[in-house]
Description:
By secondary structure, the protein is α/β, with parallel strands linked by helices.
Amino acid sequence: MGLTYVPGLDHVLHEVADLLDVVEIEPQSLWRVRGDGEISIDEDVLGRLSDLPGARLLHGVGNPVGGSCLPDPRQTALFGELAGRLHAPWVSEHLAFNRVADRRGWFHTGFMLPPCQTEAGAHAAARSIRTMADALPVPLAVEIGTNYLRPRPGDLPDGAFVRRVAEKSGCGLLLDLHNVLANERNGRGTVDDLLADLPLDRVWEVHLAGGSEYRGYWLDSHSGLPDDDLLALADRILPQLPALRAVLFEVTPSAVPDLDAGAIRELLVTLKEIWPPQAPLARLSPPLPTDVPHPTRGETTTPGDWELALGSLTVGRDPGTPLAQELVTDPAIGLLQDLVAEFRGSALAGTLRYTMRLLFLTLGPFGTGELLSGYTRSCPPRLFASEEAFAFADHLLEARPPVPWLTDVVRLDLGLLRARLDGSPCTVGLRTDPTALMTDLGAGRLPVAPPQGHYRVRLVDDGSLA
């Protein structure tokens, strides 16, 4: 029993340490991604995580294995390295896709999207899973995701599709009960129908989370504690999972300030009453894949067609295909576009702190929104927040909106970002007093006649001036 770690959750983890058997870590939270795309492990953060209670699991959130684009080998290699260093008995990733190949190469979608639920789609996903699994030192489980789209005639039902993928790939399963409950609430089908199709003896891990309503959908937003319906579902389902070894509660970083450690303790106590751990958190032997051929004649949608249509629409492009014309009528497309825009905006607010405050204080919410819309229309999403920051900074310096001190504030933010990514000081040249910029913008106000001159500023990785 345990929690999924996110930055800021340390105080809760220490408050409930006596109830934790395992802490699950998202490897992407340990990576530093430079502007040139180089990825390295943040050894300082990894060292702090070694003090957390319990054993370790790893749960990937940026290299999904449900599409025809094979997983990124750089991320897979780092994933495997961390699994070995943390002695994780298995790792997990999402049965989804977030990269799309088109005639210009490939692009990120900014959101993990549901795979093509056909026999050919199951084959493509199994190939991606095997590619990752064969490169890892421990077994791999895949998470059944949230799907906001309406069911399509001719597609495999959700549970039958996951069964095909598991059988073809030999993977384990991570059953996120909030995901499948959200799918039921959004009209995908009942939880019981899905579970009836799943190979329950492959479920090694279960996730629980809270959600929220938006535009008539129930979102898998990880925004708080599980509701009563989800706890009742867990009470009914957990005892039916013979291979279950871990139950994790997960939450998004933005929800951490509202979490109460006492409520988390009550949740963990309740879950231990529902499901006392049956076996130690030890390495499992995954089933062998069964490469049983399935006929695909009659299928009109290929995985590549599906990914191009859905991925393009999600980032605001129109690939002009018949499938895209069909999918655009699904109201979930607008929802996905909203979620991508929100995630991109949140990434920029977290990485370009002073720049975004300057834009809001100068242009207002509407003007800033128009500027962001222009950026997102012209530039596809980036996988990592740091990459999004560098791309938006380039866009700003090219667009040159009428914002005072913008060039200096962008340089200041990028210097701070580079200092964090490199773990060493970064020196930048400015025409405006950096102390005035950081003091006033940090307090949420526009500077008043900040001193001008020639400044060389040494920035350190804690976000301050050296």
